[in-house]
Amino acid sequence: MLPVERLVIHALAGALRPRLAIEVGTERGDTARLIARYAQRLICIDIDPAVRRRLADCANIEVVTGDSARELPRLLAELAGAGRGVDFCFVDGDHSYEGVRADLSALLASPAAARTVILVHDSAMAGSRRALRDAVAEARVPIAACDADFSQGVATDIECLSATRAGGLALIVTGADPALARLLRVEPGAVTLPELCERIAPTRAGLLLRGWRQAVPKRLRDRLYRWRRGARR
Ligand SMILES: C[S@@+](CC[C@H](N)C(=O)[O-])C[C@H]1O[C@@H](n2cnc3c(N)ncnc32)[C@H](O)[C@@H]1O
Asked: Would you say the CB of residue 128 lies under 6 angstroms from ligand 1?
């Protein structure tokens, strides 16, 4: 995950202070620990049974072990039945079209996610983008805002820039009342990341530079430096 993407999670979770958050796809727990700093309660769903042990020291994190295609709809039905709403959800599990589509469709069909800020990781990947588009088109909860490039992805292979992309965060805000979207200043297609950085990171220049270093492959950076040196002579 790029530093700038961690920054977005900091900014959103910090601004929202969610009572209840869900993470789909947890692995070593890096983003879970980040979200759990701000959330009262975080429920993580991961197919890997080792995740529970890795996060055993976090009092406000519960881990559900299993396939999110089954566990997420089950959890959402349970929450909706209890009249609970999810304030924040981070989707970072199965990145295939089918996986992202299933996770988003479950969220966008549930009354428990009717007023929720959803971040989708690796939204630059072709399958994720299609899944996002299709799930939003068929959403049963109102969509206040959707931005597939809330934080843009990166090209991971400079030899074929258009083919290989990774990273990126998509943002979906659900809710009939657009006040939440306005609060986050999210309009479809709007570039909001600099504002978020402005709000939370006095050292954003440093963070963004680190993000750039990580985002741009070394070979390309070297080429650019060589080109600049050559241009100055
Ligand atoms: C990219 S990692 C998550 C990284 C984590 N969010 C972070 O940035 O710190 C993806 C995780 O999703 C889990 N996963 C993959 N397919 C899944 C599925 N169908 N249901 C639940 N978890 C799944 C994997 O076991 C893995 O731990």
From this structure: no
